[in-house]
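agent: user wants the structure for LAFE_0H17854g1_1 from Lachancea fermentati. delegating to structure tool.
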Amino acid sequence: MQNRKLLIGIDIGGTNSDLVVIEPSRLEEQDRGVITWHKAVTTPNVSIGIENCIRTVLDDAIHRISKEEIISITIGTTHLINAVVERDESKLEKVAVLRLSGPYGKDLPPFGDFPNDLAEIIYGYSATIGGGFQVDGQEITELDEAEVRKHCAVIKDLGIYSVAVVGTFSNICNSQELRTAEIIQEEIPEVNIVLSHCISGIGFVERENASILNAAIKSFACKIIYSFVDMTKKLGLNCNILLSQNDGTVLSLKEALEVPIRTFSSGSTNSMRGASILCSSDPEVKGKTVIVCDVGGTTSDVGQLLASGFPRQSSTYSYVGGVRMNFSMPLVESIGLGGGSIVRTSSNTLTVGPDSLGAEIVDKSLLFGGDTITTSDITIARFVDERGMESTENLYKIGDPSKVCGKFSPDIKSQFSFTLKKKFEAVIDRIKTSPQPIPVIFVGGGSFIAPDSLEGVSKVIKPPFFQIANAIGAALGKISAYVTEVKTLQNPQTEIQDTIDKLIKKATEKAIKKGAKAITVEVVNVVSDAIPYVDKVYNFEVKVVGDFDFDHIFNNFEDIPKNLLLRRNNLPIRGPQKCTKLVRLDPPIFDYAKYEPKVTDGKWVLSEVDIDFISVGAYILGCGGGGDPNAQTIELKALIRSGTEIVVLTLEDFMKYVGKSGRAINVGYMGSPTISGERLHGNELLEAVELIERWEGRKTNGIFPFEIGGGNGLSGIWTAAKRNLPCIDLDLMGRAYPTQWQTLPSVIHDYKGYPYVALSDGNGMSMIVTRSKDDVYLESIIRDVMYNHGVQCACVEPSMDVEQMEKETIANPISLAWRIGREVLIARNSSDLESIPKRITEAVGGDIAAKCLFKGKIISVEKKLERGYGYGVVELESLGKKSIIRIPFKNENIVVYEVGKDGEEIPICTVPDLITLIDMDGRAVGTQDYRYGLIVFVMAFAPSEKWSTEKGIEIGGPKGFGEAFDQLEYRPIGEYVRPVSVSEQYNCTYN
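agent: tool returned. relaying tokens verbatim.
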């Protein structure tokens, strides 16, 4: 008894707080090492409630727990994510955003993709300031320090005390962000400053979004965390205080104070880890994929527990409260449904949530003598009405059940059961990857409201200790450490592994210092990616995890930086309150299957839904390249909301409106997806179009995209909208290819399709290359120009007449992207993600035109850079571990090899077929985002017949990707089916 080493896990919910005491040496026993547990209503001052919980277990004479036995307290809380999901003004602060990005990003301001209701609460101020870096470390412009001070004065006058600083490529060079922070601190001493390079990696919009949310919640997080420290000291405990974070591991106090956003999904992660531990002996759960539904007092968080016992993570991006961010989190959907959810009845309707009494349930619900009906009231009323007061189990001893006995009519109870079932079934269906029934584990203090059976669920499980699964998962969280570094290597072949080894050692030492047992530390992730277009510069990331070292006690109070300790005096503790603003959490699902686009007299006027469809489809048609079109999607939807009419015409309708003498210019960016995702665009496309017009001495009648694949697929639409011109449903590839000469003009004119081109970087450089000996040489010139101007630029080619467009373009690629995206979004809405390959196949033209080649997990990725192109090989293993494929890529995927038992590689599909990887949510995966563990479909589409000519195969086939593929023979995967234009299909509806 005296030698016990005990762990305390605490989950603080919006309604209840749970505490568990675990003896880790007894985890294999039937009770999972649980010594005791305690559940209490969350108090307005959360630390007081936790203190009372800990005192309760310390004073328990039966278990005789001493303070000396407690070696760690790990706390998981939903308070921070709930504040965002619920739009709680009492906990979210106004944020000022200072961008250091020079001339870039002005058409995509901060908060551009925030839901309107959340932006209304958080938005305080924003400004773009001279500054930012190129990918090679050169400044876009110098930091304008005077401008920073000017904006600080405005921010101070507005009374804003949370500032997010976001610099272009600050992950590579953070000096401008650091200097900006110094200036802000001088001008507004008490301000909370969040620097984006401390939050996440490359991906400007997503990193900015995460920085904004971190800034909005930081003061409230600090108040909560400081109260934990004071509470522990008051109790006389000499142990570590840790906070659960999103990946199932734990954060030190210092880390949690600086980056509280990392705790956002800790509650759901802990509940899934706890569910895994509690159900590890259940044959229907062990080694299988199940759904976990964590029902609290305010929300229900639903995620998928994989066969490994860890939560399914979001693929590349994560979403919190409708905001997209670029760090991995468990894939969880939250709805406003919990034990404290308010039930409203009228003559014909009954509604449940999304608002909740939260902690006020003990004052205002019927069970506690109040007059507000909650889900707990009706659930317990049903139980006592059916079984009698004498049979009330411990599970239902909440408040005074006699106050709800006989309170509700059979009709009310029936409506309630129906509404509750539908809400749970809908959110479970959305998180499933297959329509097949699947077990669901209900955990969390509000789980007693869950029905015992649900449609689409093979078994409803409520395990022992389900009420405290979050606390169990928190108590048993692992220690993690993460290090990242950007280094210039003189000899990459010999220095890469040496650098990785040094970083692993550094991360391991960091983990041990934080409390990990040395022998248990293991490497879980290593990244060593070359930075595109920069010679010998690599980005390294290493993450390790390890079990808590129960033989040592680490008191980490001293880890808190002194400036944060000083600031605490100015941060009054404010616990959960009734929200001053609370909006609906689960808006009606849009019925994509019934949506029809607006087409009148051949003019397709794009809506925001159309943009979503085209965006999803364009990235899939990118074949791994082209860049994520998310930024362009946000911009186009903002233009539509502002009243801009965006028109798409087929070539036939273009001729009808402007005549056969009409001409159109194709536009696009040249550069790397890494660059386009970090350096937002300026006016470079518009500048390059104007150059072409001046050179040719005539205005263009229309615009079309250089390539449909990826972000460029939407760049043509944006340019057309800005010029008030129609966008023509054409492109030069029908996909994305890595080089400018891998286009139909080069095919048709034998590498001489571009007599001249216009270039612009949007930062002072614009030029026309008036002549080159061929398109391959022209490509080299463009790459050289790009290398010295931020390694990305707009590239606009000569205008084409109608005859040229008929011969040298692919017809209706925007319509094809629309059709693919539509099918993906329909599949997501119906939770039928397994049907995505079939749906996409039908959208492309059926089995004759497309095939799903493989479904499996990425098990290795090798990358290198040559002259700016991302070369590499991704290897995948089928989920049944029966087969392996390898896919080399050069920005775009080149060939799919089946790997035999002897290691022989047998080609089963090659370019010019379109080869694309799609994750389980139907999102395209770019080559820059290939990573271990990602489960994907590998699909192939037949290309236009214009690529099936001898010259087309020479340029767009395997030989066009280098000597390594010279010996490959192209064997078509199927036959091309020309896509029907959206205008043609829907035009009659509006005549």
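agent: one observation worth passing along. The chain has a mean pLDDT of 86.
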